[in-house]
Amino acid sequence: MKAILLNISAWIMLPFMDAIAKYLSASLPFFQITWARYFFTVFLVLPLMFLFFKDQLKWTENPKLQIYRGLTLFFANICFFYSISIISMAKALTLAFVAPLITTILSPIFLREKVGIRRWSAVTVGFIGILVVIRPGFIDFNLASIAAVGTGCFYGVYLIITRKLHSTDSPLLTLLLTGIVGAIIGTFIVPTVWVSPTLIQWSWLIIMGLFACLGHILLIYSLKYADASKLAPFGYIEIIPNIILGYYFFDDFLDIWSFLGLLIIISSGLYVIRREYVINK
User: Fold this and answer.
1) What's the rounded Cα separation, in Å, for the pair 236 and 263?
2) Strand partners, 136
3) What is the structure's pLDDT at 186?
4) Residue 207 CA from chain centroid, whole number
5) Using only C-alpha atoms, what is the Rg of the chain?
6) 10 Å Cβ neighbour count for 193?
7) Own/partner pairs, 32-36, CB within 8 angstroms, 24+ separation
């Protein structure tokens, strides 16, 4: 029960980061917001780790994989922050929920896992859910929607790499290195788009980093008490505070087609997660 509460708390916390990013995107470049998310997360996490978890910060056995993992999450964040600057948070997150399906598609290639007809059917159903949300040919299919799907694709690759690192590196070390990779890459590029934030905007950027930091720490602690496969379905809870925040602060709400697509994508994702749990058991 402790693991479930920690996991749900994380998924409630992270949409606040997204809401701040969407609010700031009206006046700051989305890339600068992405950089701040990483910079302040590392700035806040690094001292805590050296104070309380120094024994777990042994150097990684897979530095290349850690860099690739950091890059995929960095690009996923860029895509997502760009998408929510144009479309609603709920719609962007709905399209990003293709991540478990992308993981299923790539797992036979990179993890040598066998994927049966039922899981391939779930992937197909999930793709139909995406088409229901974006309805190409019936509504304008814009770059923001493509970026939201791109978020799910990058995050699916991120999950594949995370699986490969799970048996060698500690989760805390992985969290720290992922943040450092994003902060370093972002620091080199952000001067090209830099807009000087006001004092209030700096405050919001720091708070955004704090929400990211707390959310990921809660996720790590939840995985300490339960397997990832058992906690994976709770990730879909994120859509609830996402919808509430989007509606309350930005007057964004999913239309009936987006709700239908959301249900289809979540159902197919839950089926994939359930199949993996059964197979692993």
Assistant:
1) 10
2) 139
3) 93
4) 18
5) 18
6) 12
7) 32/190, 32/193, 32/194, 32/195, 33/81, 33/205, 33/208, 34/74, 34/77, 34/78, 34/81, 34/182, 34/186, 35/183, 35/186, 35/187, 35/189, 35/190, 36/205, 36/208, 36/209
Q: Say how far apart CA 223 and CA 233 lie, in whole Å.
A: 13
C-alpha to C-alpha distance for 28 and 89, rounded to whole angstroms: 17
Identify which of 43-47, 183-187, 271-275 has the greatest average pLDDT. 183-187
Whether the predicted model's global pTM rises above the 0.90 cut:
no
Q: What is the mean pLDDT of residues 1-28?
A: 89
> What total number of domains does the chain contain?
1
In 36-72, which positions are buried (b, 16+ CB within 10 angstroms) versus exposed (e)? bbbbbbbbbbeeebeeeeeeeeeebebeebbbbbbbb
Q: pLDDT band for 140, please (50, 70, 90 cuts).
A: low
Does some domain include residue 75?
Answer: yes
Q: Quick check: is 114 in a domain?
A: yes
Is 88 inside any structural domain?
Answer: yes
DSSP 8-state assignment for residue 232: G
Range of the domain at 179: 28-203+251-280
Question: Looking at 45-54, 97-106, 136-145, 216-225, which range is the least confident one?
Answer: 136-145
Decide if 228 is inside a domain. Answer: no
